Amino acid sequence: MSQVQSIETVKQAVDGALGASAISAPIWVQYIETGLTVFMLAGGALLLALRLYLTMKEVRQKRKEN
């Protein structure tokens, strides 16, 4: 009987954890989306700055050659 009770206890714990995460999903998904948006904005700005730097470097080299 004790194994059946321990299995039921595990099932209840898993059900509780899944239920809590499903109920709170709108909250933590919003935080993840916000974090990803900031990450993509910062990454995009960094890549744009790098590309502009490399383009300006190429333009300066071509001017020196001519």
Summarize the structure in words:
The chain is mostly helical and 66 residues long. It has one domain (2-65). Helices cover 95% and strands 0% of the residues. It has two helices and no strands. It has helices at 2-23, 25-65. The longest helix has 41 residues, at 25-65. The chain is rod-shaped. The chain starts with a helix and ends with a helix. The mean pLDDT is 89.
Summarize the structure.
The protein is mainly α. It has helices at residues 2-23, 25-65.
Q: Which structural traits does this protein have?
A:
single chain; 66 residues; mainly alpha; 95% helix
Overall outline: rod-shaped
- Overall average residue pLDDT: 89
**N/C terminus separation:** 90 Å
**What is the count of structural domains?**
1
Q: What class would the helix/strand composition place it in?
A: mainly alpha
Helix proportion range: over 70%
- Uncertain runs are none
Radius of gyration, Cα only, in angstroms? Answer: 27 Å
Approximate strand percentage: under 5%
Give the biggest sheet. Answer: none
Please provide the ordered H/E string of secondary-structure elements. Answer: HH
Number of strands: 0
